[in-house]
Amino acid sequence: MRSLIRRLFAGTPPPVSDTDWSATVDRLPWVRALDAAAQVKLRGLGARFLHRKTITPVGGLTLDDRARLALATLCCLPLLEFGEEGLHGWSQLIVYPDAFRVNRSHLDAAGVLHEWDDELIGESWDSGPMVLSWADVQSDIDEPDAGFCVAVHEMAHKIDALDGVLDGTPPLPRDWQRAWAADFQRSFDAFVARVDAGETMPIDPYAAEAPEEFFAVCSEYHFSAPALLREFLPDVAAHLARFYGPSPFATRA
Ligand SMILES: [Zn+2]
After folding, report:
1. pTM for this structure?
2. Residue 127 pLDDT level (bands cut at 50, 70, 90)
3. 2-244 maps to which CATH number?
């Protein structure tokens, strides 16, 4: 019984105080633009995130409680419709002060080892930590409608990976999944063809890297520049509006 009580107790996150929450709403333009019901939902999700995840600042960075709540809330923005299940499978958010370098290696078919450095602003490991650059989170907040939101991007990868395959299709009911996969594939192929042809795209050409990057990049536009996404990729925009709920900036021109 004791263990049961402890487990029940452990399952309840400490509530977020009214003052901390209103500071967070003020701080995050996307949250400020949500309706009251969505804000209440997001507040609960943010508390869950803080309860379930360890946020670890590295590289000399320090994060106070409100900065942690802001990060948790931002990461939960893509879970407003999907819900808390979107937090499964990983436990740590690592935050660098700025863009960070990672060493990559790849053994090619001829047995030659290639090594290089990548500079990243965010990263999601398979069932491992999520990594964010605090400076880039800040610049997303400073320019909320520029089409970028690294926290949303990395969370899209986390949700995508929940069904065991990182392929640009999150877990969905079967019929919707079929329609999603067909619409995304067609839109991705057309996007890649235009990027390859050297066209200047209104959406970050990084989306052409792979289907999972296409999904993650389009997710950023859903929250940050939904009108542009609707105009340029209407089928993708419609799926994302259903999956994430209406964009907080949906009514902006
Ligand atoms: Zn990515």
Report:
1. 0.91
2. confident
3. 1.10.472.150
